[in-house]
Write a sequence for this structure.
């Protein structure tokens, strides 16, 4: 199959301003994703989608392509990233005649992923009977056991209540947190549907130390610590 790696990095981050080009271990955050993408043998091109000239310049320095600038309406705080994926696919196919079977999305905010993590996702995708593959980590908390919601009067209850209550964490069904380590998606599925879970989804488990998603300064400091000590 033919894969293109897509790295989405807009310029208007609010939680950690300038995070996509903030240096982590001496490398701009987006550089970590580009370097991994370029080492995936089944990826033919590494594309960055951004609305920022500064991010685009750094992406080019690290060997990615920036064949277009992202439209402003797809670079807002509430712009669905799914539509950013669709825009990239449509541009490459309609403007450049690129026929893509699979899109490998590597968010810039997960710099600690390994090449093996990405290849595991591609392997799972190539087994067939799936529209997308996501990455997950084992969750520390469970909606069956120790996650609660409050009603309008402030009373608390479990997020998921079973007829027979679960009193031990070990007895609760195993649940996972979605991570931003990698996504592998069928491009036709992205063009026709509006979200990952509208189709058939499988997941690859990634250890939490490689699944840090940087959105705040605390996340950044944790990633910095892990890089210095791994």
């Amino acid at each position: 199959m033919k894969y293109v790696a897509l790295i989405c990095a807009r310029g208007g981050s609010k939680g950690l301003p300038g995070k996509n080009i903030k240096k982590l271990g001496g490398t701009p955050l987006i550089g970590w994703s580009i370097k991994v993408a370029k080492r995936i043998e089944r990826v033919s091109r590494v594309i960055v989608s951004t609305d920022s000239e500064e991010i685009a310049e750094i992406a080019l320095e690290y060997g990615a392509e920036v064949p277009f600038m992202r439209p402003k309406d797809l670079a807002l705080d509430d712009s669905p990233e799914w539509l950013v994926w669709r825009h990239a696919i449509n541009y490459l196919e309609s403007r450049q005649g690129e026929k893509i079977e699979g899109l490998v999305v590597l968010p810039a905010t997960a710099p600690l992923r390994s090449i093996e993590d990405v290849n595991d996702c591609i392997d799972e995708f190539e087994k067939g009977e799936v529209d997308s593959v996501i990455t997950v980590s084992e969750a520390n908390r469970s909606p069956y056991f120790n996650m609660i919601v409050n009603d309008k009067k402030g009373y608390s209850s479990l997020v998921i209540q079973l007829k027979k209550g679960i009193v031990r964490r070990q007895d609760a069904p195993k649940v996972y947190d979605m991570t931003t380590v990698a996504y592998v998606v069928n491009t036709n599925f992205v063009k026709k549907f509006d979200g990952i879970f509208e189709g058939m989804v499988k997941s690859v488990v990634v250890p939490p130390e490689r699944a840090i998603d940087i959105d705040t300064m605390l996340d950044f400091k944790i990633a910095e610590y892990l890089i210095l000590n791994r």
About this structure: The chain has a mean pLDDT of 93. The first strand starts at residue 3 and ends at 8. Helices lie at 29-37, 53-61, 81-96, 115-126, 187-192, 217-229. The chain has two domains: 3-137+177-229, 140-174.
